[in-house]
């Protein structure tokens, strides 16, 4: 048979990366020290993403992280933006850390955990020589006894028994061997969910006046493949926004009555949301996050109702105020400013010089600059935070697997061997945890055997 030299060369070239991957790369990835280092790095950057505000505008970082003096001597807004610390969980290097950690877990699972399980299956080989029992920390030797006397004792203790001639192997708690593998799989599923969420999820914000309908457009953060997640075939109507106040006048809770509308404008879902009680629809969650005053409805003398937009005022961090201006002369040469701090209805009136000239409440009127000014209503606006994260169900499934695997790992895996040889019965066993409990169990079993047949001074070496 003539071999093709070209195919032989290609086969050798193909074998080089395969051998390198198997002999060099996989052992490095499976190294526990690498996994711990990666886990610490992920934890460190996750803390940074929690401490440093995410997704803010440039002026925010310039104001809070100036170049002089720099926080901790090095952390400035330039460092934050250069390293992507303003959106840690969506940076390429954070995703690379997750993928590398996942690769390390996978390599460890296939190189350490699964081979260990295969090795365990080979321990089902029955012991046929008495010297094999010398390695056990707990073993005993009996005269005039048989393996048939051991079987019921093992059955009483719920061991799974295998027998081959005069040799017996029994074990229980196999689930404890599988637990670490389930833990690794759970962590891999969590990492996969995190990557899916980072690549396909988005975060948006909307400030919507009461009574208005909107589509989600103001996206502040989005993954590379988040486009299909942004809804285009449905919208949301803010039927009503209101605030409950305490008797002292402080805000108790604010609410938004929302309706989800399909393409034809038909209502498909309606729900009243408040803080910690969001609306969920087709994988998108709308949270009640903020509020504001959108407009004031006023009348001048007997005029129609005018709706004037109100804008937030700069108070230097001393509270929240909204204001607008109402002309009191046809030529707009004079007017009053309306200032409100909440939706309870109290509005302050200031003239052109900034002097307080009066107050007015919802449904009431006052005389100012020779006209009667009526405040019909204050229109509130709801601040909604909108999130979509397709990876959340995957993350929840991973946490469920992780918890199940941890519980499984606490189950002790106990093994017992017995051999009848030259008129003697040899018994030995071991366990991977709960050593004291296992010793008590085996000693109890040996005491029962002692009632029937045992040497006057049996060799017994408890661990």
TrEMBL record:
Signal peptide: none
GO BP, sorted A to Z: cytochrome complex assembly
Alphabetically ordered keywords of this record: Cytochrome c-type biogenesis, Membrane, Thylakoid, Transmembrane, Transmembrane helix
UniProt GO cellular component terms: plasma membrane-derived thylakoid membrane
Recorded superkingdom: Bacteria
Membrane-related topology note: Multi-pass membrane protein
Keyword DNA repair attributed: no
Pfam families, alphabetized: ResB (PF05140)
Transmembrane spans: 32-52, 91-110, 181-203
InterPro entries named in the record: Cyt_c_bgen_Ccs1/CcsB/ResB, ResB-like_domain
Domain ResB-like: 32-305, 373-442
Family recorded in the similarity comment: Belongs to the Ccs1/CcsB family.
Quaternary structure note: May interact with CcsA.
Record's function text: Required during biogenesis of c-type cytochromes (cytochrome c6 and cytochrome f) at the step of heme attachment.
Name the record gives this protein: Cytochrome c biogenesis protein CcsB
Provenance organism: Oscillatoriales cyanobacterium SpSt-418
Upper lineage: Bacteria, Bacillati, Cyanobacteriota, Cyanophyceae, Oscillatoriophycideae
Gene: ccsB
């Amino acid at each position: 048979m003539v071999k093709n030299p070209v195919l032989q060369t290609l086969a050798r070239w193909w074998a080089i990366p395969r051998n390198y991957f198997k002999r060099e790369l996989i052992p490095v990835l499976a190294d526990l020290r690498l996994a711990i280092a990666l886990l610490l790095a992920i934890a460190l950057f996750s803390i940074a993403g929690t401490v440093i505000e995410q997704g803010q505008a440039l002026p925010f970082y310039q104001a809070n992280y100036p170049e002089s003096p720099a926080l901790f001597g090095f952390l400035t807004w330039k460092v934050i933006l250069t390293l992507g610390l303003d959106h840690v969980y969506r940076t390429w290097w954070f995703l690379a850390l997750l993928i590398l950690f996942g690769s390390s877990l996978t390599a460890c699972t296939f190189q350490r955990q699964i081979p260990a399980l295969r090795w365990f299956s080979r321990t089902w080989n029955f012991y046929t020589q008495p010297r094999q029992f010398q390695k056990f920390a707990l073993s005993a030797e009996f005269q005039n006894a048989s393996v048939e006397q051991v079987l019921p004792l093992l059955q009483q203790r719920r061991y799974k028994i295998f027998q081959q001639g005069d040799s017996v192997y029994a074990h229980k708690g196999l689930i404890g061997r599988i637990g670490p593998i389930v833990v690794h799989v759970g962590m891999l599923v969590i990492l996969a969910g995190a990557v899916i969420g980072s690549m396909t999820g988005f975060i948006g914000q909307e400030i919507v006046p009461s009574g208005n309908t909107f589509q989600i457009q103001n996206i502040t953060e989005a993954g590379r493949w988040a486009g299909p997640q942004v809804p285009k075939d449905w919208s949301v109507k803010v039927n009503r926004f209101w605030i409950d106040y305490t008797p002292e006048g402080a805000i108790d809770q604010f609410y938004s009555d929302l309706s989800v509308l399909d393409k034809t404008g038909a209502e498909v879902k309606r729900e009243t949301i408040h803080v910690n009680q969001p609306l969920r629809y087709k994988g998108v969650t709308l949270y009640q996050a903020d509020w504001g005053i959108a407009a004031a409805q006023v009348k001048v003398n007997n005029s129609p109702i005018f709706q004037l937009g109100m804008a937030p005022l700069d108070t230097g961090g001393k509270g929240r105020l909204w204001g607008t201006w109402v002309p009191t002369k046809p030529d707009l040469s004079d007017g009053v400013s309306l200032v409100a701090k909440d939706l309870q209805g109290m509005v302050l009136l200031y003239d052109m010089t900034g002097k307080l000239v009066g107050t007015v409440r919802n449904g009431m009127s006052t005389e100012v600059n020779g006209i009667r000014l009526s405040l019909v209503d204050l229109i509130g606006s709801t601040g909604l935070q909108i999130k979509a994260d397709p990876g959340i169900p995957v993350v929840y499934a991973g946490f469920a697997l992780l918890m199940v695997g941890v519980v499984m790992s606490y189950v002790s895996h106990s093994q017992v061997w017995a051999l009848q040889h030259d008129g003697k019965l040899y018994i030995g066993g071991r366990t991977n945890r709960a050593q004291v409990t296992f010793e008590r169990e085996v000693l109890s079993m040996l005491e029962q055997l002692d009632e029937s047949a045992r040497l006057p001074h049996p060799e017994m070496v408890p661990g």
